[in-house]
């Protein structure tokens, strides 16, 4: 991001640690399963940090980010973006401390999911399938699978139990260890080296409207105790992945209840996937097909005013569809789709907020979705923790007014009134009652682009 310098500087120091031991087999998992999702820069950053760590087991020596820039051959902006991706996918946790105006970081590496966890994740495996295709996905499954022991072909287990091989400790030994139990534990401020399984990508359960879901479920069919924390985590992940609201999720849950009145998680995942593929012609989802979660929508009643209709549209339209609407129905370019997915993945902006961001950026940059400018605004809005369309619209209005004031302060105005080369919607104006009337454009191309936006906004007057 263009404002990465607010978060990190080349002179800032860092050390690397690990949440337990990393195994050699993790390299294969990262190479073949994670790299297609996070890209080569993220992969290189993780491997470089891991290499620094290997010199001293679980803690590396202190280094500067300038050294990291030289090792990777990347600028600090690219390293910062890669770090955010690693954080988002659950491979890195970052801790920062500021002391005497000097920042120092701890980068804690987390192991990747094991192959069985990854292929049964219900989210990362779906994105990988969509990314690399059926044939290569099947090849990777074979690569990370092994033939089971043929137990059912006449083999009988003869393994001895512990007590059959070893003698029990004497009463005196047991009493001695009880009296000196502190000798068994790790020293103060230390812990034993071990392996901690990765928790994978986490979706905040607060983004799903469980109150509405529970209100629609019959207690006799699905007891409230069946919706435990683990089940809620899976429901939240499936709702995010497949863009399922509480009403649709109710029917999916009912199809996954077993004889014990419990929710079978595997059946729940299968039912959610089958539902999505049925309504989307057997396709699997991408990030930019999601719409604003119900928990973060501000439009609760039937929209009446032009602004309310605009908010409703932005909340109920996916970023992919919004891009198409801005282009008059034309398919977005591959680079635009990758940019939007990257912002949703890294900055975790909600779909409705992202729609406002795209609208704001394109109106400011002659209908171009430029990576640098879009990334700068996205990073800023993420730090401001903007969650709703209304908040995004207010922030866009502030930034538009700030830009206008900066131009006046730098003397970039002339005696003649400048010709506007963009059409600003109503919610950018300082006075909500004042409409932004389009002025004559300087070229035919700009006039055509202006008319496209005008036609789209006219829909809100119906």
UniProtKB/TrEMBL annotation:
Domain Replicative helicase loading/DNA remodeling protein DnaB N-terminal winged helix: from-to ranges: 10-174
Organism annotation: Neobacillus citreus
Highest rank taxon of the organism: Bacteria
Pfam assignment, any one: WHD_DnaB
Basic and acidic residues compositional bias, start-end: 431-450
Signal peptide (from-to): none
InterPro entries in the cross-refs: DnaB/C_C, WHD_DnaB
Region (Disordered), start-end ranges: 395-450
Domain DnaB/C C-terminal: 330-395
Family: Belongs to the DnaB/DnaD family.
The protein's name: Replication initiation and membrane attachment family protein
């Amino acid at each position: 991001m263009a404002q990465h310098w607010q978060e990190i500087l080349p002179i800032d120091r860092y050390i690397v640690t690990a949440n337990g031991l990393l195994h050699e087999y993790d390299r294969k998992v990262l190479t073949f399963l994670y790299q297609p999702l996070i890209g080569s820069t993220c992969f290189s950053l993780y491997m470089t940090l891991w290499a620094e760590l290997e010199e001293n087991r679980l803690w590396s020596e202190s280094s500067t980010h300038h050294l990291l820039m030289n090792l990777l051959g990347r600028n600090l902006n690219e390293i910062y973006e890669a770090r955010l991706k690693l954080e988002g996918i659950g491979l890195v946790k970052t801790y920062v401390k500021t002391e005497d105006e000097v920042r120092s970081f701890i980068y804690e590496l987390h192991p990747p999911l094991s192959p069985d966890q990854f292929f049964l994740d219900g989210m990362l495996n779906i994105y990988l399938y969509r990314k690399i295709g059926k044939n290569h996905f099947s090849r990777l499954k074979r690569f990370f699978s092994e033939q089971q022991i043929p137990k059912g072909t006449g083999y009988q287990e003869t393994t001895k139990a512990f007590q059959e091989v070893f003698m029990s400790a004497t009463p005196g030994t047991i009493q001695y260890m009880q009296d000196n139990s502190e000798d068994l534990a790790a020293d103060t401020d230390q812990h034993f080296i071990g392996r901690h399984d990765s928790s994978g990508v986490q979706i905040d359960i607060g983004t799903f409207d469980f109150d509405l879901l529970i209100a629609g479920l019959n207690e006799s069919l699905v007891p409230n105790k069946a919706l435990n924390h683990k089940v809620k985590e899976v429901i939240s992940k499936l709702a995010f992945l497949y863009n399922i609201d509480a009403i649709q999720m109710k029917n999916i849950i009912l199809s996954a209840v077993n004889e014990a009145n419990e929710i079978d998680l595997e059946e729940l995942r299968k039912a959610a996937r089958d539902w999505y593929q049925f309504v989307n012609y057997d396709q699997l989802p991408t990030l930019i097909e999601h719409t604003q979660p119900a928990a973060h929508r501000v439009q609760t009643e039937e929209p009446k005013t032009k602004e309310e209709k605009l908010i409703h549209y932005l909340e109920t339209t996916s970023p992919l569809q919004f891009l198409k609407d801005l282009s008059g129905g034309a398919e977005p370019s591959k680079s635009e789709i990758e940019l939007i997915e990257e912002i949703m993945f890294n900055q975790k902006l909600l779909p409705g907020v992202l729609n406002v961001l795209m609208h704001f950026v394109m109106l400011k940059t002659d209908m171009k979705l430029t990576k640098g400018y879009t990334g700068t605004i996205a990073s800023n809005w993420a730090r401001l923790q903007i969650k709703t369309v209304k908040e995004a619209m207010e922030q866009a209005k502030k930034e538009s007014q700030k830009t206008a004031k900066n131009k006046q302060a730098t003397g970039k105005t002339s005696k003649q009134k400048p010709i506007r080369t963009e059409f600003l919607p109503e919610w950018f104006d300082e006075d909500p009652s004042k409409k932004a009337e389009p002025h004559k454009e300087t070229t035919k191309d700009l006039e055509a682009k202006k008319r496209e936006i005008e036609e789209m906004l006219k829909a809100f007057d119906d």
